[in-house]
C-alpha cells in the first residue's frame, strides 16, 4: 500500500452507506482527487469533525490494497470559513467556482498554484467587504490560466504588436486583433469588442489572485464585453457551460 500526507481543501462531500463519506478534495501536491472516508460521519477521533466544504485540512491518505481507490485515514483541521457559511449569496458564488474546479480537473503539475488560488478565493469571500460582480467568471479565467489555458491578452494574435487600447477578441481563435489586423481581416464570426478599460481588467484578473481583484464596477457595456469574452473562451476552448447549477460539456 502507498501512503502519503498532504494539505487539501474540501470541495464537495457525499454519503454512501450509513456512516461513510466520499470527498472531492483539491490536494496541494496531488491535485483534484476523490477520497473515501470510511466511518467519516461518526469518527471524531480520526477526523475531529473537520470534514466540511471549504475546510483546509492536513490529510493522511492510503491507497487501497488493490489500488482501486484512495482512503482518507486521518484529517486535522488547519483553517476554515466562519461567517461565510452564514452568507448564502457568497456561498453560492463559492459553489459556482468549486464546480468549475471539479469540471476542469487538476493534475499534480498545476496543483500547488490551484490550491493557493482556491484558498485565496475562500479567504476573499470570507473577509472582503466588496467583491466584483463578475467574480465567478473572473475565477474561470484565472483558474484556466493556472492550468495553462490562458489567452494572450497583451499582443495581437495576427501581427504580434503590443495592444494598449481597444481591440477585438476573436473567440474561436482565442486571440486579440489590433485595429489594423481587424480591418484587414474583415468581420469575425465570433468577435467581441473590448474597450481599453475592459481589456486592462481582464489582464489584471489574469495576474492577480481574487483578493487583489478590483471590486469597482466598470460601465455596463464593458462588463458585458468581459463576460462574453470569458464565457465564450470557456465554452469554445474548454468545452464547459454553466447551466442549471452545473457545468456541462458542450
Automatic annotation (TrEMBL):
Alphabetical UniProt keywords: DNA damage, DNA recombination, DNA repair
UniProt name for this protein: DNA repair protein RecO
Entry similarity comment: Belongs to the RecO family.
Record-linked InterPro entries: ARFGAP/RecO (IPR037278), DNA_rep/recomb_RecO_N (IPR022572), NA-bd_OB-fold (IPR012340), RecO (IPR003717), RecO_C (IPR042242)
Pfam entry (one): RecO_N
GO biological process, one term: DNA recombination
Organism: Desulfovibrio desulfuricans
Superkingdom of the source species: Bacteria
GO cellular component, one term: bacterial nucleoid
Chain's role: Involved in DNA repair and RecF pathway recombination.
Keyword DNA damage: yes
Annotated gene: recO
